[in-house]
Amino acid sequence: MEEKVKFGLIGRNIFYSFSKKYFEEKFSELKLPNFSYSIFDLKEILDVQEIFEIENLRGFNVTIPYKEQIIPFLDELSDEAEKIGAVNTVLFKNGKKIGYNTDAFGFENTLLLHKNPKQKSALVLGNGGAAKAVKYVLEKHQIPYQTVFRNGKINFKNLPKEAVNSHLIIVQCTPVGTFPNVSDSVDFPFENLSAEHLVIDLIYNPAETEFLKKAAAQKATTVNGENMLKMQAEKAWEIWNI
């Protein structure tokens, strides 16, 4: 009998996650009946040490709120993960726990798919692990940006309307509005959006967040996080099969 090969996802309150279904369908398509994918809902990052003990675990994904907190528990980081300062994919290889960031790959794919040449600068809403991957991609493509977050110099209370007018790419990186809290949205001057704007919300559940609904009402082009999610998952699969 073939040895079981295990994967999973660590995070907190992640019962809504798409990853389990996505990877189980992949295992089925590729005829890999001995492969499995589990959800590990951790109360705190220290609990990850129990996950490390699971037999035949080849790797796992990392989501909110542990993308930065996981780093001290790992032996090595890929160049990208080190530069970004956040990890969303872990590979176990040759007795080492290696951290990667595939969010950057996923976001880059989404951005280049939808961005037009007039959209030259960005507002990044949020300052967590996902926002770090977004900023890494913007820097790579020489797109200047400003970060807006709760405790930042520019925050959701004092965000100048001119900043919204002049930054035609808006990337919503906070978890606000994620299922089940679908009526929530970050405080934002939506009236300053226009048909010139590209608004990307990294949330994928629901498919259209309250934030995207309000942006679409101003005729902005709106994109959710589904493509980014699929692209980062494909990249994670590639890493696990190195």
Automatic annotation (TrEMBL):
The keyword Ion transport does not apply. Keywords: Amino-acid biosynthesis, Aromatic amino acid biosynthesis, Oxidoreductase. It comes from the Bacteria. One of its GO terms (molecular function) is shikimate 3-dehydrogenase (NADP+) activity. Its EC number is 1.1.1.25. The keyword Transmembrane helix does not apply. Pathway: Metabolic intermediate biosynthesis; chorismate biosynthesis; chorismate from D-erythrose 4-phosphate and phosphoenolpyruvate: step 4/7. Residues 9-90 form the Shikimate dehydrogenase substrate binding N-terminal domain. CDD domains: NAD_bind_Shikimate_DH. PANTHER family: BIFUNCTIONAL 3-DEHYDROQUINATE DEHYDRATASE_SHIKIMATE DEHYDROGENASE, CHLOROPLASTIC, SHIKIMATE DEHYDROGENASE. This is Shikimate dehydrogenase. The gene is aroE.
